[in-house]
Amino acid sequence: MKKSIYAVVGAAVIALGAAAFFSGGAAAAPASTFVLLDGSRHSTEDLKGKVTLVNFWATSCVTCVAEMPKVIATYDQYKGQGFETLAVAMSYDPPAYVVNYAETRKLPFKVAIDNTGAVAKAWGDVQLTPTSYLVDKQGRIVKRYVGEPDFAELHSLIEKLLAA
Where does the signal sequence lie (predicted)? Predict the structure, then answer.
């Protein structure tokens, strides 16, 4: 009797794991409103139809500043193929610093300031920067990166999602 219960439970666990694996295990990106530097607003819904890198960062974050040229290069490489980048500055980052950084570095993608911290909270209570999420065309989070991503692996995944 016990063996058959274990077998049924084991089969159920395997089936759930397989379902999560084959569906990609991707969860919908949380409903959020991003306030861009120009004052315009974009929502999670606006991400649909493109593969998007949502990058939580801060001007005071050494790793964020170090990875930014690679984030720019990634955006430049794939922007013509349906790829978008949205850089979300953390709530503790002074807005004047964010604006100055974006202007002096000529960031070519959308930059938002999470003044209240609500966006970081919605996206899994992001506290460590950089934290990035790769979102597919259907608005599902495919991959989360804490720290600088392996850009070769990121590019491979972007190419796969753009082709889908």
Answer: 1-28
pLDDT tens digits along 79-118? 999 999 999 999 999 999 999 999 999 999 999 999 999 9
Q: How many CB atoms lie within 10 A of CB 37?
A: 17
The CATH classification number of 26-163 equals 3.40.30.10
Distance CA 43, CA 29 (A): 10
Confidence at residue 15, expressed as pLDDT on a 0 to 100 scale: 34
Burial string for 96-115 (b: 16+ CB within 10 Å, else e) reads eebeebbeeeebebbbbbbe
User: Helix axis angle, 151-163 relative to 62-78, nearest 10°?
Assistant: 30
pTM reported for the whole predicted model: 0.84
The residues, ordered by sequence, that sit 6+ positions from 113 with a Cβ below 8 Å of its Cβ are 35, 37, 88, 89, 93, 95, 98
